[in-house]
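# step 3/5: fold
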Amino acid sequence: MGPRLFGGQAIAQALMAAAQEEDAERLAHSLHCYFLKPGMADEPVDYRVTHLTAGRSFATRRVEASQGDLLIFSMIASFHRPEPGFRHALECPFPLDVEAALAGLGEWKQRRSDPDDHPIADRLQRRPIEIVPLDPSAVFGRRPREPRTASWMRMRLPARAGSAMQRALLAYASDMLFLRTAMLPHGIRPGGYDVQATSLDHAVWFHETPDFDRWHLFVADSPWAGGARGLSRGHFFAEDGRMIATAQQESLMRPRGEALERLMQQDGEA
């Protein structure tokens, strides 16, 4: 929450705008988007859809989002009619035990000495997506950690939505915690004074239609950071282990203040 438009909201709304141009059989299988300018949460957003290509199996749409005269977001989404094909998928690297994760989160909350020390945890509770990290201290804490996270996600209130909306709900959730994952090794987090952070571009590939009224485990890691940018990637798994979607994002993580001074000093000593 805050004055800026959440990136996941722009992705989800743009995807639904494109989906309304499609027939019921063709569903989004991928999207690629750029966050061009910060949007404001309290201002209306106009989504304009352009038809790029359409064939028997695939169709491609471009969506541009504006607030007033300012273009803030651009996305290209591809839609595919279901058809048979070869199958393989990566296995989930974590135990698929939601109850254990819920119990772990409850224990972590009981141990919190100062709720203000973990503002991101309370801020996420106001989002429509419920989040249960496997390791809350890594996701919400301040200490440097390995750039790898796993969190259960689902709608806080059941949406009972159709296939197009379910994909939009997952797209919304895919923008959550990605920034945090890339920052974990450096002991910083979004919203801190020592970093300017925002999403730059984002991509999602839908392998199946999710049911986001049910739990999905989002397993993410960050293989690279440098030049004031960080790369994150992740997979969504259903409770039975099926891989449902894949997402990637590059984010701005520009050091400032004391953090920038430390990095410049380290570069000078290298």
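# step 4/5: annotate
Helices lie at 7-19, 98-111, 119-124, 136-140, 163-173, 178-183, 257-269.
# step 5/5: archive (pending)
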